[in-house]
From TrEMBL:
<dbReference type="GO" id="GO:0003824">
    <property type="term" value="F:catalytic activity"/>
</dbReference>
<dbReference type="InterPro" id="IPR014748">
    <property type="entry name" value="Enoyl-CoA_hydra_C"/>
</dbReference>
<comment type="similarity">
    <text>Belongs to the enoyl-CoA hydratase/isomerase family.</text>
</comment>
<dbReference type="Pfam" id="PF00378">
    <property type="entry name" value="ECH_1"/>
</dbReference>
<protein>
    <submittedName>
        <fullName>Enoyl-CoA hydratase</fullName>
    </submittedName>
</protein>
<dbReference type="InterPro" id="IPR029045">
    <property type="entry name" value="ClpP/crotonase-like_dom_sf"/>
</dbReference>
<dbReference type="InterPro" id="IPR001753">
    <property type="entry name" value="Enoyl-CoA_hydra/iso"/>
</dbReference>
Length: 261
């Protein structure tokens, strides 16, 4: 019997969808899932036909965090495990040249919560929830949660969510800024695809540079951000997308930012 792939891959209209595929465990992560997801993200980044990447879950969960059974009794430290699996994955997502959408279709717990927060755009189903569950087993939030969450909700609310392991539902998640959109469960995958295709029609080079600028600004001074903007604006202005945008504006037509071949 052939084993089911841990990551399902689908490409449609410039959108590469990567689905975590351990639905019987609510997509709890093992090494195979994490390492395969990282490699598939790199492959999507290198594929010129891909303009947007979506990460979602199969079944009724997004990602329930680490599969504890997979690491139980293993001769590897916590630090070694994170540096082998989760940390390269999160760095790959944040460094990807293309927009990454995390489409949260159910529970996102522990490291799954970190993964849910790592996207450039976060879309949630009505039934989605996020829980920083680490303190329930006396561990520290990892996989980027201590970096992402306080930047979204502030130090104090982040500490409370982590210390008490409070579950955040979709409506509160939207209010807190943990996601950009909430869609009905029954149309979630179609709504995500439509949103991703809308993003895929935008100027890819300009979005790539925008992502670079925002990532740099998160850890820079205002003066450094201004210098980075000036540097990247020149690159954007020299690209054919800019000429097309200006020509379309003058002609009062919609710009065509997708070129075949």
């Amino acid at each position: 019997m052939t084993a089911e792939p841990v990551i399902l891959v689908e490409t449609r209209a410039g959108v590469r969808t990567l689905s975590l595929n351990r639905p019987d465990k609510l997509n709890a992560a093992n090494d195979a899932l994490l390492l395969t997801l990282t490699e598939e993200l790199k492959a999507a980044d290198a594929d010129p036909a891909v303009r947007v990447v979506v990460i979602t879950g199969s079944g009724r969960g997004f990602c329930a965090g680490q599969d504890l059974g997979d690491v139980s009794g293993r001769d590897m430290t916590f630090t070694e495990h994170l540096n082998h699996t989760y940390n390269p994955l999160i760095r790959t997502i944040r460094g990807l040249s293309k927009p990454v959408i995390t489409a949260v279709n159910g529970v996102a717990a522990g490291a799954g919560a970190s993964l849910a927060l790592s996207g450039d755009i976060r879309l949630w189903a009505r039934s989605a929830s996020l829980i920083e569950v680490f303190s329930n087993i006396a561990l520290v939030p990892d996989s980027g949660s201590t970096w992402f969450l306080p930047r979204l909700v502030g130090y104090h609310r982040a500490f409370e969510l982590m210390a008490l392991a409070e579950r955040v539902g979709a409506e509160e998640g939207l209010r807190l800024g943990l996601c950009e959109r909430v869609y009905p469960d029954e149309s979630f995958r179609q709504d995500v695809q439509a949103y991703a295709e809308r993003l895929a029609a935008r100027p890819a080079n300009a979005l790539r540079l925008t992502k670079q600028a925002l990532n740099a600004a998160l850890t820079s001074t205002l003066d450094q951000a201004l210098e980075k903007e000036a540097e990247l604006q020149q690159l954007a202005g020299d690209h054919w997308e800019h000429a097309e945008g200006v020509a379309a504006f003058k002609a009062r037509r919609a710009p065509e930012f997708v070129r075949e071949g």
